[in-house]
Each structure stands twice: as C-alpha cells, then as structure tokens.
Design goal:
CATH superfamily: MetI-like
Number of domains: 1
Radius of gyration: 22 Å
Distance between the termini: 20 Å
Largest sheet: none
Order of helices and strands: HHHHHHHHHHH
CATH architecture: Orthogonal Bundle
CATH class: Mainly Alpha
CATH topology: MetI-like fold
C-alpha cells in the first residue's frame, strides 16, 4: 500500500502530463506544438535517440560529479583554514563568496581560455560554482560547536588536531552533506551552461544545437534527462548522508 507522501506526487505528475498531452497548456499560453512538444513526441524522440542521449548524459554527469568533488574538497579546505586561523582564513570565505556571485556566463569564456575547450573547462566551471556552498556550510558547522564539549576536550588536554578531528569536523558533517545536496543540483546547472558555450558533446551542447535548428522534441529530451540525472545525483548524496551520519538526530525516524 502506497503512502500519501508517494501517491499524491505520482497522481499530481500523471495529471500534469495528461493536461500537457491534451494541449491544455497550449491553449492557456497560446503555444504551438513546435514551441512546446507533447510528452508523446518527447518520449518518441528519446527512444529513437536513446544511445546518443545516454552517452551525452554520461558526459555531462561526469563533468558535474568531478567538478563537484573538486569544488567541495577545496571549499572544505577553505573552511578548515578559516576555522584554524580566523584572522587570515575568514577573508578566504569572502573571496569564495565573491567568486560564487560571478555569473556562469562570465566564467565560461575565462575557464575555456585557461583550460581549453575540453572537459577540463566545464569541470573548472563546476568547481568554481560549488566551492562557496561547501566553504560556508562547513565553516558554520566547525564554528558552531557546543562550548561545553570544547571545554571537555580541553580538560583532557586535547590538542588542536584532536579538537578538529573529534569535535569540529564531526560536528560539521551534517552541514557538509547539506552543501553536497546543494552542489548536486548546482553542478548539473554549471556543467550544462558551460556546454552551451564551448563543447562538442554533452546535454548542454545538444540542447543548444537542437534549439538552433528547431528540433524541440530533442531539446526537451535533453531537459528531461538533465532533470532525471540531477534527481538521481541528489538521491545518491542523500543516501550517503544516511549512511555516514546515521548518528545525527536528523537521520533518526
């Protein structure tokens, strides 16, 4: 028996697709079928181009995953530095936040100039767009520790490395996974937008070309697969969170 938490979203999705298929949205917004293809046309296009779409999805997902891992690792190191040396390290949080405010469309040409037009430039774009969330969240987790716990560590003559290992880093893990879940979706956006400018493969590249030649069912197929890949990426991170911090109150049923 399905719970209401599962059944209601499924019914809402089926209703949405039904209204779309019977051109309800076309009539409301005065759209033509070439502007908003029907779900059946998108599904047919996905079936006919399955191998290519699967290959391009894997390429984009590789960029997103690698870029997120690198960006999150750098962000975590920045948070460590900001916590260990507050006077000098906190300035790095400001810098990484400023970098995050730069639009992806401005970063793309720079990264292409630095790293070439291969996969490295998109990984660099994703890296730049995922550092801030990790740095800020991890720093908050390391700084927001219980003073009594810190006093207890000091009473046992624990050094700075021990305090970081057993208290600050452990306390930051829920914040780290929050940042990873944010980055799971942000990384897909960064990879796809980067492919719009400089790429010969990937969902962003295919979506851009499809729009230019008015192959809208193929373009919408890219959008659907990007959404599915983003959701799966998020669910993987969520599952890892349940495994690694099952001791945290947020993971208790």
């Amino acid at each position: 028996m399905f719970s209401a938490g599962v059944l209601l979203p499924v019914l809402a999705g089926v209703l949405f697709l039904g209204l779309w298929e019977f051109e309800f949205f076309h009539k409301i917004f005065d759209l033509k079928k070439y502007q908003l293809p029907l779900p059946t046309a998108i599904a047919t296009t996905m079936r006919d181009n399955f191998s290519m779409l699967l290959s391009y999805t894997g390429y984009t997902l590789t960029e997103a995953v690698l870029g997120m891992l690198v960006g999150s690792a750098i962000g975590f190191l920045i948070a460590l530095a900001a916590t260990a040396w507050p006077r000098w390290g906190s300035g790095s949080l400001t810098l990484v936040a400023a970098l995050n405010a730069v639009p992806i469309v401005a970063l793309a040409p720079i990264m292409n100039l630095w790293f070439g037009d291969g996969i490295g430039s998109r990984i660099a774009i994703v890296t730049a767009t995922t550092m801030a969330a990790m740095a800020i969240n991890a720093y908050k987790g390391m700084a927001a520790i219980d003073p009594l716990a810190l006093d207890l560590m000091h009473s046992y003559a624990a050094g700075k490395p021990a305090v970081f290992r057993y208290l600050r880093i452990r306390n930051s893990l829920p914040y780290v996974f929050t940042a990873l879940k944010i980055n799971a979706t942000a990384s897909m956006i960064g990879a796809i937008v980067g492919e719009f400018f400089f790429s010969s493969k990937g969902l962003g590249y295919l979506l851009s070309n499809s729009i230019k030649v008015a192959k809208m069912p193929l373009g919408w197929s890219c959008i659907v697969l990007a959404a599915i890949a983003g959701v799966l990426f998020y669910l993987v991170v969520e599952r890892l969170e349940k495994v690694f911090i099952k001791w945290h109150p947020s993971q208790r049923k």
